[in-house]
Amino acid sequence: MKSLNKMMLACVAAAALAMPALPLAAQANPSPVTLAGDVKAEKIITDADGKKRTELVEPTTIVPGDRLVFGTDYANNGAEAVTNFTVTNPLPAAVRLAPDADATLDVSVDGGKTWGKLDGLTITGSDGATRPAIHADVTHVRWVLTRIAPGDAGRLTYPAIIR
Fold first, then answer.
1. How far apart are CA 40 and CA 28, in angstroms?
2. Which of 59, 97, 123, 161 could disulfide-link to 41, CB 3.0 to 4.6 Å?
3. 30/24 Cα distance (integer angstroms)
4. Which CATH code for domain 2-162?
């Protein structure tokens, strides 16, 4: 079990480290927008009054079924607004998009070749039959930021579950 945990953590860590570079590589022109990616584990905490709350913590030991939140912070460090800035994050193979992910997320189920809302995408099986795409089929998520004013910053996130 420890080697499985280490393998999953390594996959998650590699994906988190790769996230800042991947979206920038997709941009056509150099940009003053900086990106920084991370991954956190959801942990349920029970306080002294018995109330439960969810905290995001550094992932240490993770097992199938655990929830993670992948995040990308962005900031426009330039003097001019940036328009139509695209941030694309691949999902690590060790995770699947959580069922409670924002239904308006722009996703791909074919490695980033085509995009849409999950409820409008299909998967074609080896037999040629098609079926509706499901959360476990998502390979990438994408956001198009219409306008980032100088000095503006924000955070983009999506929830995932360890397979």
1. 30
2. 59
3. 8
4. 2.60.40
